[in-house]
Amino acid sequence: MTDALRDEVRAWLAAHWTGPAADEAAARAWLAKVVEARWAVPRWPVEWGGRALPDAEARIIEAEFAALGAPGTGQDRTNLYANTLLAFGTQALKERLLLRMLRGEVPMCLLYSEPNAGSDLAGLRCRAERRDGQWVVNGQKVWTSYAAVAEYGMLVARTDWDAPKHRGISFFFCPMRQPGVEVRPLRQITGESRFNEVFLTDALIPEENLLGQPGQGWAVLQTALAYERSVMGEAARGPRSGVAEGTGEPPLIALAREAGRLGDPVLRQDLARVLAYRALNALNTARAKADLAQGTSSPLMSLGKLAMSRILHEEARLRTAILGPESLFEGPEHPRAEDANFLTLNAYFTSIGGGTDQIQRNIIGERVLGLPREPEVDRDLPFRQVRSQ
Amino acid sequence: MAGIGREEALAFRDQLRRLLAARAGEAELRRVMETPAGYDPTLWRQLAELGLVGLVVEAAHGGTGAGPVALELAMEEVGAALLPGPLLGSGVLAAGLVAALGDEATAARLLPGIADGSRIAAAAITGPAGSWTEAGVAVEAVPDGGGWTLSGTASFVLHGQNADLLLVAARTAEGIAVFEADPRAAGLVVAALPCFDHSLRIAEIRFTGAPARRLGGRPGWAAVEAALDLAQVAMAGEQAGAGRRVLEMTVEYAKTRIQFGRPIGSFQAIKHMAADLLLEAESAISAARHAAEALEGRAVGAGAAVHLAGFACAEAFATIAATAIQMHGGIAFTWDHPAHLYLRRARADVQLLGAPAWHRERYLQALGA
């Protein structure tokens, strides 16, 4: 069975794969072929373009694609939008969007965080009201990547103000290209603009774009977040300039060498300590993967993000220490300072984004170590009575 | 060292865990640590029968024939129980030194007694400065007729006061060599050193022309370094296992200790400390196991792995043990609470085979910096 499957994938790839796509149109054309041949989502039901295969067989397909560097399969694990839609969407919405999403034709964004609902996301105040057979949305979202190009945003909004905070939220596919949606780029502390604010003013959402039942949005969101976390991995960014990369030794050692500081015994201690953080995290990650491969869940998975925060902050601190007063400078004439300063600021992307280190510690304490939850004074109150600013 | 398979190593670990649970609890530890010998000879024999004492000794010389990976796994259990005794000094460091010399006749003569636990061997390597480098050796050997005599001082000798056999690193005209000496011989005095960790035994040995036998094989310091690497990996396993256990105890306490009407573990002040310690504990386990695998495979870069474990595991255990006392509060300030036993071991281990700063420097050198 597995051999036959492997042969089938190989034969198909041999007949169709011609190498990496040259442009976006070619990439889309490839995805369309993968979807048509039912390789995109092998674990999914046949009805939605899948093969209803068990995980082990789907992995065979992924391995064959990966061996050639061919993209497109495994979306039943990695495509958080499509998986959320499959699990909770209406028949009409699935028919309209699912296959297009798998073909990469539906740019998406996330409309979760609000200026007053960050760590406490369930305290969100964006309002959706049912009016004349559709939903009318008013509120503000923040930290939205790709908002300007997205066709739909996955939106959580409050639909019941008398229910407790977690039970009055609903989950929508919100059309982004309409007059009620205004996107404003948000300038970050690094000076870049990778996120947006999204202002929703009487934005309209068709009835069929509700996922799950009204008031069940928190549960839908948990599914979506689980998919998101599972693919987040270790996507930390390196230095902006690429200086000191590619010499084969760790960039911090190369930088210290270049700066003539490698003989400083105090710095050497610091260097070893900081290099160890990254080395230990790599070992933890490898152990977590081995545990998973053996079917044991691992506490290590949830530690990775916290560990990465420390790595990035500490590496940036050490870069700055190595450079000393040079780190005062800015601009293209000073790439080493640019790197140190950018990495110092961008480290907060990891220690705040996707759940702050403090929220992460709560999660580790409660879900991994089994410590009791902090009592929440607003948990069971009707949301109307919950204190706001 | 050929090593045994993973399944076998896990099965051995489980057997050991059961024996330690039955025979090496806290009450037993407290009793034994106040005796002069500092270990229980009956349990020692049982551990030898199980195969723990001769774990890394080849089967041909009466041992179990396991490698660093199985050793590290076993040491996690030993550490969790804070098992007192000459395992690290005799079964690992001294046995490892004899094996590392690679001289078949010496191995056949000395290893069976060490492996079956009937002889306790102690490796006397560093001087009173406690520096685990070639320069730290403070015993001189001079030829004397057909044999040799030793003069100088060796310190921090694990279970030196219990030893039946001494293996001494000493300086000769051709560099460091390893010598065999009888602890009861004239010309040497073994003095127990008072140790902050009551479950540990260390001694200083003063040589004043003691007779000794030079052991052949591999150059002395290379053999010593190989044995130290093995002992370092074993201790890293001990630290990782002990750190994990003391964290488990602390988390359990945080779930049951009520203040302000709720378990203290529900307070973020405590919960966040626990989360940070879990990262330390798991990183220590990863580092110790990685070092064992590197040593077993004689991998390129094994040096970096060993020294990484050398400081990461030592500091993780010390941090966990110290923070655990703070998290417990007053109860852990009492002698009767076990937390200080872990802190004492952690602080001893930090110094025992080279302090963290030294391992960090060696780690950096191994990375080419």
Automatic annotation (TrEMBL), chain A:
Gene3D superfamilies noted in UniProt: Acyl-CoA dehydrogenase/oxidase, N-terminal domain (1.10.540.10), Butyryl-CoA Dehydrogenase, subunit A, domain 2 (2.40.110.10), Butyryl-CoA Dehydrogenase, subunit A, domain 3 (1.20.140.10)
Record Pfam families: Acyl-CoA_dh_1 (PF00441), Acyl-CoA_dh_M (PF02770), Acyl-CoA_dh_N (PF02771)
Transmembrane segments: none
Protein name: Acyl-CoA dehydrogenase family protein
Entries under InterPro entries matching the protein: Acyl-CoA_Oxase/DH_mid-dom, Acyl-CoA_Oxase/DH_mid-dom_sf, AcylCo_DH-like_C, AcylCo_DH/oxidase_C, AcylCoA_DH/ox_N, AcylCoA_DH/ox_N_sf, AcylCoA_DH/oxidase_NM_dom_sf, Mycobact_Acyl-CoA_DH
Keyword terms, alphabetized: FAD, Flavoprotein, Oxidoreductase
Family to which this protein belongs: Belongs to the acyl-CoA dehydrogenase family.
Native source species: Belnapia mucosa
Automatic annotation (TrEMBL), chain B:
Residues spanning the signal sequence: none
Cofactor: FAD
UniProt cross-references to InterPro entries, sorted A to Z: Acyl-CoA_Oxase/DH_mid-dom_sf, AcylCo_DH-like_C, AcylCo_DH/oxidase_C, AcylCoA_DH/ox_N, AcylCoA_DH/ox_N_sf, AcylCoA_DH/oxidase_NM_dom_sf
Acyl-CoA dehydrogenase/oxidase C-terminal domain segment(s): 220-362
Alphabetical list of Pfam families matching this protein: Acyl-CoA_dh_1 (PF00441), Acyl-CoA_dh_N (PF02771)
SUPFAM superfamilies on file: Acyl-CoA dehydrogenase C-terminal domain-like, Acyl-CoA dehydrogenase NM domain-like
Family annotation (Gene3D superfamilies): Acyl-CoA dehydrogenase/oxidase, N-terminal domain, Butyryl-CoA Dehydrogenase, subunit A, domain 2, Butyryl-CoA Dehydrogenase, subunit A, domain 3
Lineage top rank: taxon: Bacteria
Keywords: FAD, Flavoprotein, Oxidoreductase
Record-annotated Acyl-CoA dehydrogenase/oxidase N-terminal domain positions: 7-117
PANTHER family: ACYL-COA DEHYDROGENASE (PTHR43884), ACYL-COA DEHYDROGENASE FADE28 (PTHR43884:SF20)
Family label: Belongs to the acyl-CoA dehydrogenase family.
Designated name of the protein: Acyl-CoA dehydrogenase family protein
Native species: Belnapia mucosa
